[in-house]
């Protein structure tokens, strides 16, 4: 069955779904995006993703293309048309089409909204086949990583460098040698002191929705936890590292720059949090 995309009010086969060459997303990366994971017809962490979309939109001064209720209806319709119940929903909103000029066009064009969905298997029942390697890289992304902007070239380069090194993810660090996040994930570290840490939210990291949801599981589970940045040395001495996102769920990083993390297998904290993640999916 041909995949169907939503582009500016129309449902089209993917092959015919096009955007204008003067779209500011295409020319400047002047736009924002969201990725949702849908599980058995339900958008996971839905309210968090919509809240972040609203925030990103406000931060770059984009008008809303439609109400949130209409957007939810479009997503539901697109999933139905693609017969996808469990998968990824990609939403992109750009400043629209205008003659190329750097500053915001005046009058503002209608923002361009496009959506695609793609089936993705349900999370596996355990972590035995759900872990991966990572490499460390200097964080060369722009200074407002808290906006879910489509300016992703540095993230793309980092993921490609990881792939070439035989790893899945690149774990990025700032100029002070403190871990920020993954190229497309939030990073969590269990230190030699058994404390679980993830960086506090600032301009250097995207406020992950999976991160926000997991924080509640962490609080409920009694794991020792601190919201603070980890140094590269701390990362290298970690007992456990794992990443979270709408696409990686909770994913242990079992090798870092080619060296095993801990005993090289998914750790206890990640396993417990993954079990809670799965329970949350299944329990609704
Ligand atoms: N990315 N940090 C970055 C830089 C990300 O790109 C993502 C997710 C996250 C985790 O956010 P969330 O838990 O809300 O998915 C953190 C999506 C999945 C992507 O670009 O495909």
Please specify the SSE layout and strand pairing.
Layout: E1 4-7, E2 10-13, H1 24-28, E3 31-39, E4 42-43, H2 46-59, H3 68-81, E5 87-94, E6 112-119, E7 132-138, H4 153-164, E8 169-173, E9 179-182, E10 186-190, E11 196-197, H5 209-221, E12 225-226, H6 232-236, E13 240-245, E14 249-256, E15 259-260, H7 268-283
Parallel strand pairs: 7-8, 7-14, 11-12
Antiparallel strand pairs: 1-2, 1-6, 3-4, 3-5, 5-6, 8-9, 10-11, 10-13, 13-14, 14-15
Helix pairs in contact: 5-7
N-(5'-phosphopyridoxyl)-D-alanine binds next to helix 5 and strand 13.
Number of strands: 15
CATH topology of the largest domain, anyone?
D-amino Acid Aminotransferase, Chain A, domain 2
Class of the largest domain, according to the CATH hierarchy?
Alpha Beta
The CATH homologous superfamily of the largest domain is called D-amino Acid Aminotransferase, subunit A, domain 2
Descriptive account of the structure:
It is a single chain. The protein is α+β, with helices and mostly antiparallel strands. Helix 5 crosses helix 7 (268-283). The strands form two sheets. Strands 7, 8, 9, 10, 11, 12, 13, 14 and 15 form a nine-stranded mixed sheet that branches. The protein has seven helices and 15 strands. The mean pLDDT is 96. The protein folds into two domains: 4-119, 2-Layer Sandwich (D-amino Acid Aminotransferase, Chain A, domain 1); 133-283, Alpha-Beta Barrel (D-amino Acid Aminotransferase, Chain A, domain 2). The structure holds N-(5'-phosphopyridoxyl)-D-alanine.
């Amino acid at each position: 069955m041909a995949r169907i995309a939503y582009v500016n009010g129309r449902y089209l086969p993917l092959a015919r779904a096009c955007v204008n060459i003067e779209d500011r997303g295409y020319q400047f990366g002047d736009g924002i995006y969201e990725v949702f994971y849908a599980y058995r017809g339900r958008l996971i962490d839905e309210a968090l993703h919509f809240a972040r979309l609203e925030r990103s939109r406000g931060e770059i001064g984009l008008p809303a293309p439609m109400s949130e209720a209409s957007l939810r209806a479009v997503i539901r319709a697109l999933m139905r048309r693609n017969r996808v119940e469990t998968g990824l929903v990609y939403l992109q909103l750009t400043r629209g089409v205008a003659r190329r000029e750097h500053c915001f066009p005046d009058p503002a064009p209608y923002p361009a909204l496009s959506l695609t969905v793609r089936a993705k298997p349900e999370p596996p029942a355990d972590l035995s086949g759900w872990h991966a390697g990572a490499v460390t890289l200097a964080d060369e992304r722009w200074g407002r990583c808290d906006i879910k902007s489509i300016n992703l070239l540095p993230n793309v380069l980092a993921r490609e460098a990881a792939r070439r090194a035989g790893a899945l993810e690149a774990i990025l660090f700032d100029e002070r040698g403190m871990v920020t996040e993954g190229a497309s994930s939030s990073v969590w570290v269990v230190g030699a002191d058994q404390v679980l840490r993830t960086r506090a939210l600032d301009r250097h990291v995207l406020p992950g929705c999976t991160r926000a949801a997991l924080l509640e599981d962490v609080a409920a589970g009694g794991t020792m936890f601190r919201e603070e940045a980890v140094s590269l040395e701390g990362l290298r001495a970690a007992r456990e590292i794992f990443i979270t996102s709408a696409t990686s769920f909770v994913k242990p990083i079992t090798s870092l720059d080619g060296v095993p993390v801990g005993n090289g297998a998914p750790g206890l904290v990640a396993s417990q949090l993954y079990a809670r993640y799965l329970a949350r999916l299944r329990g609704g």
